[in-house]
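The instructor's notes for this session suggest beginning with a concrete chain rather than abstract definitions. Hand out the sequence below and ask the class to guess, before any prediction is shown, which regions might be ordered.
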Amino acid sequence: MIRRPFLLAAGVAGLLAITTYVVSQSFAESKADRSPQWKKVDEAIGKGLPKTAIQELEPIIEAAMKAKEYPEALRAIVRKINLESEIEGNKPEERVLRLKAAIAKAPKEMHPIMDAVLAHWTWHYYEQNRWRFAQRTRTSAAAGDDMTAWDLPRIMAEIDRTFAKALESHKELKATPISTWNGLVEKGTLPDSYRPTVYDFLAFDAVAFYAAAEQAGAKPQDSFEIEADGPALSAAAEFLKWDAKTTDLDSTNLKCVRLLQSLLAFHKDDADRTAYLDADLIRL
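After discussion, reveal the predicted structure:
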């Protein structure tokens, strides 16, 4: 489980052990009591029968999708993918491939959260194979869809693209309280006010990814630099007014700046100043 508000590292482990994934307040609450079916799934897993558990998950997915109860459907889909990948040798790349296939068939309402899971799982694949990427030379030819053959810039770009896609639905994510993730996101030592919405949680995960040390090796150079005497480290009001100019639109520094500006602008008028002050502290 993820302990909030911890970010990317904790998030990967939690998403691999996912049990519940609530997507949006606009989604229909589950009206059907499927607890007996879920009990059968848990019993099969407890007996070491993953194939039986997968069979028990199929009717849950079908019924939940038909009823547009997308949170429960996603919970079952991710559980199924985890079980299938365990049968295939517990390879992270198997999870990624199966999740991509599931996203392609899923309703658009499910895509933002599924894309966020995909970004985490792709990052997890990199984490488990860090040494391979460190030894792999940059390829001049465009790599195909086989992620096991990607070089460091390609996998960093893929994770970047997936996070960006997930955050495109920022209006919906900002309107979704983090409490709707209860069951996936285990409460940590800090209150929800630090990460009050799903947007906060995902945006800070993306910031952590963009700030990772590996980014330095993913590009030949980063032309956009953070200057100590510039707006990046000035007062929050000046930082928010800053329109960073650069031709390096792929800069991870630039993406961090824009996400932090978005978070600060989102919370600047909050009655509870916790999220705003925490974002500003992380910015500094």
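Then share the key points. Confidence is low (pLDDT under 50) at residues 1-29. Residues 2 and 272 are 24 Å apart (CA to CA).
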